[in-house]
Amino acid sequence: MYQDPKRVRTRYGSINLDEYEARLIDALSDYTGIERASLLRQLVLKEALETLGLSDLDTPSVARSAG
User: Fold this and answer.
1) What is the number of helices (H) and of strands (E) in the chain?
2) How far apart are CA 59 and CA 45, in angstroms?
3) Domains in the chain: boundaries
């Protein structure tokens, strides 16, 4: 079904947010129209790439709308 089975997403972890953080993510999700899980995935991957100094690479799974 998938060309690359390593691209199948599975639950990796979870995060705990306080009410203010959750409201911020919900507001950003409402504003962008991106599902909350997808938005969080994009934000985490974008931050990871920036931390590694790889933010200039064109990564198709991390949408530019996350930045």
Assistant:
1) 2, 0
2) 10
3) 21-52
Which pair of structure tokens corresponds to residue 2? Answer: 């998938």
**Nearest residue to 34 (alpha-carbon basis) of 66, 67, 2:** 66
d(CA 46, CA 54) in angstroms, rounded, equals: 9
Residue 66 Cα distances to 10, 12, 23, 30, angstroms? 21, 20, 17, 13
CA angle 40, 26, 6 (to 5 degrees): 20
Provide the pLDDT for residue 36. Answer: 96
Task: Specify the pTM.
Answer: 0.72
- Mean pLDDT of each 10-residue bin along the chain, 67 residues long: 85 94 98 96 94 76 54
